[in-house]
Amino acid sequence: MYRVLIADDEPIERQVISKKLNGFFKDQIEIFLAANGVEAVELVKEKHCQIALLDISMPGKNGLDAAEEIRTFDEKCSIIFLTAFDEFSYAKKAIEVRALDYLLKPGADNELINVLEEAFSIADKYETEVKNVDTIKKSTPSSDFNLDEKDFSKSGEIVREAKKYIDEHYKEDISLQDVAGVLGYSDVYFCKLFKQNFGKSFIVYLNELRISKAKEFLANPAINIKDISSEAGYRDANYFARVFKRMTGQTPSEYRNGVID
Questions:
Q1: What CATH number should be reported for the domain whose range is 205-260?
Q2: Which of 31, 8, 4 has the alpha carbon at shortest distance from 106?
Q3: What are 221-248's pLDDT values in tens digits?
Q4: Which conformational region is residue 48 in: left (phi greater than 0), alpha (psi within -120 to 50 degrees), or beta?
Q5: Structural domain boundaries in the chain
Q6: 136 Cβ contact partners less than 8 Å away, ≥ 6 residues apart
Q7: Pick from 28, 183, 42, 182: which is nearest to 119 by CA?
């Protein structure tokens, strides 16, 4: 199970997020709750949380300071900020602590769920890499990132390269880290640049592309739905069905029946 921390000083907010995640990821996650940054740091350290959802404005120690402290002992935890503050200084700090994403409240459920799925993918990769000592060093996030790492004026070229790579490799088990590495950019820089140019996170874009391809395949009754899941980039047919229904409101079979009829 994935160990997920939710840190927010509002009890109702913690309960809402916890219920939402348990509804989407039943039997896949174990949730720990913190009311402030101090508790958040202690729980990540004690429970070895792989994912930390942090509010920014919390008493005692805010989410940004908590994330900075978490990074002193855990380079691999996927940190996701959930905040009502849309300020550049906060976004810049989030990049400095190598946060996976920075989501504004209130936000769409789909965005949060997709980011969690990306965090699960990262956790799985780290788990696999632990078994292979030779690859651990390559997978450890860089600590020398600077907001001015690349000239943002080059973003158009980077976006075209990223889109081309994703279009050619969407069937494979790719992640934001993979694409950033192929293009020669740090994860956090590429994550921010991608979101600025596409208006959505990498995993949301990838899932939308895969589901779009799946719809094309489903229009052909000669193709088995299990085969379609792999052709669309999903190795697990059940997982593909869950993502498809969440994004379209229909199961793959229901969608196919509607198209054929």
A1: 1.10.10.60
A2: 8
A3: 898 888 998 899 887 787 788 788 877 8
A4: left
A5: 2-127, 142-199, 205-260
A6: 129, 130
A7: 28
